[in-house]
Specification:
The complex is a heterodimer.
Chain A lengths: L8 E4 L5 E6 L11 E6 L6 E4 L13 E6 L2 E6 L8 E9 L3 E4 L3 E5 L1
Chain B lengths: L2 E5 L3 E2 L5 E8 L9 E7 L5 E8 L4 E3 L7 E6 L4 E6 L8 E10 L2 E5 L3 E5 L2
Parallel strand pairs in B: 2-11
Antiparallel strand pairs in B: 1-3, 3-8, 4-5, 4-9, 5-6, 7-8, 9-10, 9-11
The chains are: A mainly beta, B mainly beta.
Chain lengths: 110, 119
């Protein structure tokens, strides 16, 4: 069982917006602004999409955005494209385990 | 552009030690303030941070694995390594090495290497 809770799956049609949630506790997401999001295509290594809640590394489209409220962080993808279909993982600093991950969310582009 | 490549046995027997090496190219492993990490992914499951070695040589491990993990660096070979002892089938996973963008945020990953623990 992962420390952070994500929905197992989400889906959306091309051009739509989707949001993936990542729920933690008062020991991680609530107290640290160190939430990251990774995208992983099948058979590939994860790719950093968002760090420190809402920062994008260079090269990541601005269709990807992050936010946080209380114990929950969110990744929003606007203008959904076929290539966005992948697994997405959140991570957060944790006072107990240094770094914890979510269990992952499978995004399907219909 | 820094690149990382994992190497090591794909099959390890139970109770033995899993040993992997990450070779870094495109930059020196002891230049800059970077955390060099190992992360694993059990088949069909999520990610698990194993530990890191800082450019100064300081190490830090996931408390859940700390008693079995050692991460070391060989600057002469531009490599860092993972040793995980007393392995069981639960250690079967894809193992990734990675370098951070900022502490515990990884923007450079190796392609991963699958390690199976089985007799």
């Amino acid at each position: 069982q992962s420390a952070l809770t994500q929905p197992a799956s989400v889906s959306g049609s091309p051009g739509q917006s989707i949001t993936i949630s990542c729920t933690g506790t008062s020991s991680d997401i609530r107290v640290y602004n160190y939430v990251s999001w990774y995208q992983q295509h099948p058979g590939k290594a994860p790719k950093l999409m968002i760090y420190e809640v809402n920062n994008r590394p260079s090269g990541v489209p601005d269709r990807f955005s992050g936010s946080k409220s209380g114990n929950t962080a969110s990744l929003t993808i606007s203008g959904l494209q076929a290539e966005d279909e992948a697994d997405y993982y959140c991570s957060s600093y944790s006072s107990s385990s240094i770094l914890v991950f979510g269990g992952g969310t499978k995004l399907t582009v219909l | 552009q820094v690149q990382l490549q994992e190497s090591g046995p794909g099959l390890v027997k139970p109770s033995q030690t899993l040993s992997l090496t990450c070779t870094v190219s495109g930059g020196s492993i002891n230049s800059g303030d970077y955390y060099w990490s190992w992360i694993r992914q059990h088949p069909g499951k999520g990610l698990e941070w194993i530990g890191y070695i800082y450019s100064s040589g300081t190490t830090y491990y996931n408390p859940s694995l700390k008693s079995r993990v050692t991460i070391s660096v060989d600057t002469s070979k531009n490599q860092f390594s993972l040793n995980l002892n007393s392995v069981t089938a639960a250690d079967t996973a894809m193992y990734y090495c990675a370098r951070d963008l900022s502490p515990m945020v990884w923007n450079h990953w190796g392609q991963g290497t699958l390690v199976t623990v089985s007799s």
